[in-house]
Design goal:
The chain is of the alpha+beta class. It contains 10 helices and 13 strands. The termini are close together. The chain has helices at residues 30-42, 53-61, 86-93, 103-110, 112-120, 170-180, 234-238, 253-269, 303-311, 315-325; strands spanning 4-7, 47-51, 70-73, 129-132, 148-152, 166-167, 187-191, 195-204, 211-221, 226-227, 242-246, 274-283, 286-293. 30% of the residues lie in helices and 23% in strands. The strands form 3 sheets. Strands 8, 9, 10, 11, 12 and 13 form a 6-stranded antiparallel beta sheet that branches. It has a 4-stranded antiparallel beta sheet with strand order 4-7-5-6.
Length: 329
């Protein structure tokens, strides 16, 4: 049985993106990482922390012989724009087996605009959107139906997203986009889909078409399921004010099954491996893909923990499925 090495630059290494005593950014916390390692060891595997991006760079530059085992990528990278591609790139260069998606597909999914373009080619329904990188692009916003949402194109964990990102008209959208361009190179301006929020957690066995887990969750904002102008921004995520339900509690089996089918299609189309999260909005016009995450939070306090609680299954059983999905042991 191969040993598991955890690759992670944990949350406490980076500045908080919110005000308050709690550190919040798009990295897994150190405690969640430790809990995961302990869980893996408790179910009969052997795991330990290896390090982060800088440790991988040092290993490559010094031509170190990497310990034999499987490298678990829990990493969002450092602070650069395309940081999520750093860890899979380095693991490829070090020629070691690793979890998750390859560098190309990781970088593709981290670019919301191009992910939408790709999925449209697969007949996946997506909101209309334009990508803005300079003032010369602002006129493209006129091509969209209002209201719209303006958000950073290549960030996760709702970074840069607040309630002010909801834009009912062109003037508001232009002002918000100008503001976001001060901090981000690219801004996605996208038709706002009023509807129900669904996030789907899926485990796909690496290198196969086997789906080991597929569970959509319905999310409420202040006990409100249908969202007409609400935004799940960085405050809502960091303060844990969202409420979760199994999707089948609020939707028909047909709708829930269709979400599962679409998620599996997306995972296969974009070659996404192991643990993946896909977000949707649903209304009378259909199921709209919003974004995907190739490296979602993995802990008892994240979506995974909420899902296990709702299904009345243990976190250990979820971790065991995840390890089985590595297809490398």
């Amino acid at each position: 049985m191969k040993k598991l090495y955890i690759i992670c630059d944990y949350r406490e290494k980076f500045p908080s993106l919110t005000v308050g005593n709690k550190t919040y950014n798009d990295h897994i916390s150190k405690q969640s990482m430790i809990n995961l390692i302990n869980t893996i060891n408790s179910i009969g595997y052997e795991a330990e922390y290896f390090g982060g991006v800088e440790d991988l760079i040092k290993s490559y530059s010094q031509k170190r012989i990497m310990p034999e085992g499987v490298y678990i990528n829990l990493n969002d990278g450092l602070s650069e724009k395309h940081k999520r591609g750093q860890t899979p790139m380095l693991l490829e260069m070090l020629n070691v087996p690793y979890s998750g998606s390859d560098p190309f597909h990781t970088l593709l999914v981290s670019d919301k605009y191009f992910t939408n373009l790709c999925l449209r080619q697969k007949n996946i329904q997506c909101p209309d959107s334009v990508m803005i990188s300079s003032q010369e692009d602002f006129s493209q916003i006129h091509n969209l139906r209002f209201p719209v949402i303006a958000k950073p194109n290549c960030e996760g964990s709702s970074i840069g997203i607040t309630s002010s990102c909801f834009c009912p008209d062109f003037k508001t959208a232009k002002i918000k986009t100008q503001d976001l361009l001060k901090d981000f190179d690219e801004v996605l301006v996208q038709e706002y889909i009023a509807g129900y929020e669904i996030t789907d957690l899926i485990i796909r066995q690496k290198g196969t078409n086997n789906i080991l887990f597929n569970q959509p969750l319905s999310i409420a904002y202040q006990n409100q399921l249908f969202l007409s102008n609400e935004i799940f921004g960085i405050f809502e995520k960091s303060s844990n004010i969202r409420k979760y339900y199994l999707a089948e509690q609020n939707f028909s089996n047909t709708v829930t099954d269709n979400v599962k089918i679409i998620t599996e299609q997306i995972a296969l189309a974009l070659n996404l491996n192991n643990f993946i999260r896909v977000d949707y909005r649903i209304n009378d016009n259909g199921i709209f893909f919003i974004e995907a995450n190739t490296n979602p939070a993995f802990g008892t306090t994240s979506d995974v923990g909420k899902c296990c609680e709702l299904l009345n299954v243990t976190f250990e059983s979820f971790v065991k499925l995840y390890i089985e999905s590595l297809n490398l042991l």
